[in-house]
Amino acid sequence: LGTLYLDKPLKAHTLMQAIARANRVYEGKNNGLIVDYCGILAELRQALATFAVRPDAESGEETVDFVRPQEQLIADLAEAIDEVRAYLAQRGFDLDEVTGSESFARIAAIEQAKEVVNENDESRKRFELLALTVDRKYRACINLPEQSQYRLAEASIDIIYKALQEDVLDPDVTKIMA
User: Fold this and answer.
1) CA of 83: how far to CAs of 63, 90, 132, 152, in Å?
2) pLDDT score of 83
3) Labelling 42: which of 1, 34, 70, 110 has CA 20 to 30 A away?
4) If we measure between CA atoms, which residue out of 92, 108, 114 comes closest to residue 172?
5) d(CA 111, CA 5)
6) pLDDT tens string 112-159
């Protein structure tokens, strides 16, 4: 289960079971996405206080606030996008070539980015991991207004990633056939 939509109030153990289903570990899955339509954050905090109390690393006191602050989520997203920018810049490509162009120029920029990333298997895998991290952190900020300022950068990274995946799914074998 990757996404859980909560549309009715849940409490205590039932809520914890539902959340745990979405957050179960699976190969290729880093986390689950919980979409809350009924405002159960207070119930979640209560359930966590009851079933998931942990000692604070610094003070040793028990803490129950496992929901990350919004500012931290946005900072994590910005950091992930900066990592992709830096990675591409090391290879001589500026992500703004994709975000700032349109039509054929954008298609050419995407192809150029693919060439840069496809230097070898290691460089491609590294980019894919960075792109997936950006996607995960972007989805974590899905209902934050500050997320919109990162939309173009995330979309550009995503389109490069998807273009790479299309090459894997639909390889050009015309030379081999000839």
Assistant:
1) 31, 11, 12, 16
2) 97
3) 1
4) 114
5) 37
6) 999 999 889 899 999 999 999 999 889 888 778 898 999 999 999 999
